[in-house]
From TrEMBL:
An example molecular function term from Gene Ontology annotations: GTPase activity
GO cellular component, one term: cytoplasm
UniProt keyword list: Cell cycle, Cell division, GTP-binding, Nucleotide-binding
Name of the featured protein: Cell division protein FtsZ
InterPro entries: FtsZ/CetZ, Tubulin/FtsZ_GTPase_sf, Tubulin_FtsZ_GTPase
Domain annotation Tubulin/FtsZ GTPase: ranges: 8-189
Segment forming the signal sequence: none
Gene Ontology biological process terms in this record: cell division
Length: 313
C-alpha cells in the first residue's frame, strides 16, 4: 500500500523546528500552513494557534498537552476544509511531544489523511527519550504514514558533526523529501528517512545513509527502500547504476529516483519498516500491548482542575 497525497493540503508545524519546516513545506507544495506552539516566538504567520500555559514560564510536556486540549475545537475548525494534513514535529522538544499526540488524534477523529514527520532526539538527551518514544507511538497510531528522522543515528554514523550540523542535515533531508512528494510513491505506515552529509563521492554518501538506517532498524525489518540521488547533473550513469546495484543487493525490492540539484551531492533513503525499531525501546512499558493497557486512549496530560479543597487534619 502507498500513501495517497490528496488536495487540499494543510501543513501543521509544531514548536520552533516544526514551524520552520512547515514554512518550507508550504512553499514546496503550494499549500496552506498552520503553526501551533506554546511559545509566541515560534509563531510567524497570522494562521496560528497559541497554546496558553498561563503564568507557567517553563511548562512541562504534560502541561502543554493539557493546555492543547483546551484548543481542540479551534484545531478542528482549522483542519475542517482539508483532505490531507502534513504534521511537522520535533519530538526532541516539549512542543512536539506535548502537542503532537493531541493534533494527530484530532486528525484521526476527523478522518483526515495524515502524513507525519517526526524528528527524534539524540540519545544523550536522556530526559527527552521517554517522552519522545511515547509521542511517536501515539502519532504513528493515528497516521496513515509516518516518516521518522533520527538525529542520534546521524550523529553515530558521523561523530565529527556538531549538533547544529546534524539539525541542518536532517532539516534539509526533510525539505528534499517533501519536494519529491508529488512525484514519487511512499509506503504507508512507518518509514525511516536516512541521509548523509554532502559528499563528493555519491557511493560514500550511500554507505553513510545505509549506516544511519541500520542504527535504527535491523536489516530484516526493511520492507522496501526508495533511493533519492541528488547531484549537479554531472553524475555518471555508471555511478547511478552502481549504487542501484548496491541497494538492489541489500534489499528485496528497491527503486531509484534521481533528482538534480546544483547545490549539493548526497543520497537520501526512505525505507519502509515492518516490525520493531529502536524507538519502541524508548518506552520501557512499550512491551505491554494497548489491549492490556487501561489508560492508553487518552494521552497523559496535566490540567488545572481548580478544586477548592480544604486541608484535612
Amino acid at each position: 500500500m502507498t500513501f495517497q497525497l490528496t488536495e487540499p493540503i494543510l501543513v501543521i508545524g509544531l514548536g520552533g523546528v516544526g514551524t520552520r519546516l512547515a514554512e518550507k513545506t508550504k512553499k514546496s507544495l503550494n499549500s496552506d500552513c498552520l503553526m501551533i506552539s506554546h511559545d509566541q516566538n515560534d509563531i510567524t504567520t497570522e494562521n496560528s494557534i497559541k497554546i496558553s500555559t498561563k503564568s507557567v514560564v517553563n511548562p512541562s510536556t504534560n502541561l502543554i498537552r493539557g493546555s492543547t486540549l483546551e484548543t481542540s475545537d479551534e484545531i478542528k475548525k482549522n483542519i475542517t476544509n482539508y483532505s490531507t494534513i502534513i504534521l511537522m514535529s520535533n519530538l526532541a522538544g516539549k512542543a512536539g511531544t506535548g502537542i503532537g499526540p493531541i493534533v494527530s488524534k484530532i486528525c484521526k477523529q476527523e478522518q483526515k489523511n495524515l502524513l507525519s514527520f517526526a524528528v527524534m532526539p539524540f540519545k544523550f538527551e536522556k530526559e527527552r527519550i521517554f517522552q519522545s518514544g511515547i509521542a511517536l507511538k501515539r502519532i504513528r497510531q493515528d497516521s496513515q504514514c509516518t516518516i521518522v528522522v533520527d538525529n542520534d543515528a546521524l550523529l553515530d554514523s558521523n561523530p565529527d558533526l556538531t549538533q547544529k550540523q546534524c539539525y541542518d542535515i536532517s532539516n534539509n533531508a526533510i525539505a528534499s523529501m517533501v519536494h519529491s512528494l508529488k512525484s514519487s510513491e511512499i509506503s504507508d505506515n512507518t518509514n525511516i528517512l536516512s541521509t548523509s552529509k554532502t559528499a563528493d563521492d555519491i557511493e560514500v554518501s550511500l554507505k553513510d545513509s545505509l549506516r544511519m538506517l541500520y542504527e535504527d532498524v535491523p536489516p530484516n525489518s526493511i520492507k522496501r527502500s526508495m533511493l533519492y540521488v541528488y547531484g549537479d547533473g554531472n553524475i555518471p550513469v555508471g555511478v547511478l547504476n552502481t549504487i542501484s546495484n548496491i541497494t538492489g543487493g541489500t534489499f528485496d525490492e528497491d527503486s531509484t529516483h534521481v533528482e538534480m540539484s546544483s547545490e549539493e551531492s548526497k543520497v537520501i533513503m526512505l525505507s519502509s519498516i515492518q516490525g520493531e525499531t529502536k524507538f519502541d525501546k524508548y518506552d520501557p512499558l512499550g512491551i505491554i500491548s494497548s489491549e492490556k493497557t487501561i489508560d492508553w486512549d487518552e494521552p497523559e496530560c496535566s490540567i488545572d482542575c481548580k478544586l477548592d479543597l480544604k486541608q484535612l487534619e
